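Review form for a predicted model. The reviewer records the input and the model, then writes brief findings.
Reviewer: anonymous (R2)
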Amino acid sequence: MASGWSLLLIADIGGYTDYMRTHRMSLAHAEVNTAELLEKVIDAAQGFDLIEVEGDAAFLHRRADAPYGDAPVELTLQAAMAMHRAFHLERHTSRTACAGVTAASRRRHRHVAQRRC
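Model under review:
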């Protein structure tokens, strides 16, 4: 089994629990809004493949040539900026413009790990 490096990225919507709690009477509406936000964030991370969605978080990865240096940092910054823009554009559209969604925020985490193919 060959090994290599992967860049791991977790995109998480901050305020999700409070948002769902305040919208418990219209959970379907809240879930649709969250799914739309997360979908835009995932789509914006070009070059990254989706591994899993869990609630308000998406786990993505892409192959990396090396764990150190400028390349992983640049890829992360590009993805983070694109995800940030996509999140805020979607958040302010009429489809998701309820009070709870505008209070949401987005968090992301990056890690480079060795993988086995």
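Findings: DSSP finds four helices and four strands in the chain.
Further findings: The beta strands are 3-14, 49-54, 57-64, 105-116.
Recommendation: see findings above.
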